[in-house]
Amino acid sequence: MEKKGERLEVYSLGAFLVKRGEENLSHKYRFSKKPWMLFKYLISNRDRVINKDVIADIIGLENYYSDPDKLIHNLVYRLRQMLGEDPSDNNLHSAIIFENGGYKWNGNENNWLDTDEFDALCKRARTEFCNKPEEALHLCDKAIALYKDDFLCENICDEFTYTARSYYHNLYLKIVHNKINYLSLIRAYGEIIDLCKNALRIDYFDMELHVEYIKALLEKGDTPQALNHYEEATAKLYTQEGITLPSEMTAIYKSIKQGKRNTQYSLSGIQEELLDKMKDKGALLCDIETFNFIHSLEKMRAKRFNQMTCIVLLSVIQNENIFKSDDPLEGEMDKIRKILLETLRSTDVVTKWSENQFLLLLIGMPVDHIEIVFKRIADAYIGMGPSSDFKIIRSINQI
Q: Measured at the alpha carbon of residue 173, what is the angle toward residues 168 and 176, in degrees to the nearest 5?
């Protein structure tokens, strides 16, 4: 029989837990797999009535029993019994009720579901941010505290959990980013760091979290940790999963490595720089150190994904490679740099290797396409009217 005054509490954002009062029902009946599978299906579709045919299919009853309806009835009877209810009663207080020929979750004050609480907190927080930011922040904290992990993470392979899991996951990321935006306004960078650490444990593939985490570390003056995180994230995402990091993150890394900000990174001081970086549609021009770093990553990535990537050395020569001190080599190199940045793709990488050489990393480009690219570069160079004493030669290797 149901214990009066003790509501049923269901935790599904993380480890599955069902309790009534202090009694852990999900542990007590942990070997009752089919009743719990039915229960999880009902809370995954908590606003729908689930007919018996669907239940039979989900639980896998149709192929083994001649009378699945009777078995479903017995299954619900057993489930109600496990939940501490009168198993034969179908009333307004039951967690599982029969309605219109099927069964559904009964969400009311007697039956508490963490996803309902989480959903309500997120909606209230978003509403309050404009009028009562401190109250909104409190609501955010309560919502984030509820979200221990993705919905029914122990059932990640069960298709019936996909829709609900995606919904709550996206809701979680939105509320985390809402809180980050507010904390940035009040310059609470330590809290942003802690928040991003926890959020990245749940979703390491959210690029904005990486960007905000690095920004907060830099604002706190922890440049070494910011660089370590960038390189760690790049290794995991770029080389292992083939995911390209956002241009803002790459721009921050390049700026620090060039020594512009050795101790503290002022966010307001780089707004225009980042915008300029994001507007660039041509190849990435970087220093040799950054080029070597990307080259190393591409070697690992090419091996993992069997992707063709070529490295090209472009040399500007004059009079059999003999340069005079008064030769206008620098002007010719400027012309070629401009051509490279305008001609190559945004995925390609360029660095100046020596006073008369450029290195190109042409990512995902087959060797037989290199000649086409080189001809385009050479034609553009001739079209700019170079000195007749200069010409471009190339050397190509596959990495």
A: 125
Which long-range contacts (C-beta less than 8 Å, at least 24 apart) are formed by 379-387? 380/339, 380/342, 380/343, 381/335, 381/336, 381/339, 384/335, 384/339, 386/332, 386/335, 387/318, 387/328, 387/332
Cα–Cα distance for residue pair 333/339, rounded to 1 Å: 10
Selected residue with higher pLDDT from 76 and 291: 76
What is the rounded CA–CA span in Å between residue 298 and residue 242? 10
Q: pLDDT tens-digit profile of 107-166?
A: 888 899 999 999 999 999 988 877 788 898 999 999 999 999 999 999 998 999 999 999
For Cα atoms 97, 103, 104, give the angle at the middle one, nearest 5 degrees.
Answer: 70
In this structure, are residues 360 and 311 in contact, taking their beta carbons and an 8 Å threshold? yes
CB atoms within 10 A of CB 321: 10
Whole-model pTM?
0.67
Higher-pLDDT residue of 40, 327 = 40
Contact 187, 266 (CB under 8 A): no
Burial of 226 (0-12, 13-18, 19+ CB in 10 A): buried
**DSSP assignment of 162-182:** HHHHHHHHHHHHHHHHHHHHH
CA distance linking residue 30 with residue 15, whole number of Å: 13
Backbone φ and ψ of 196, nearest 5°? -65, -40
Tokens representing 62 are 């149709």
Task: State the chain's mean pLDDT as an integer.
Answer: 83
Rounded to 5 degrees, φ, ψ at 9 are -120, 130
**CA–CA gap between residue 294 and residue 234 (Å, rounded):** 9
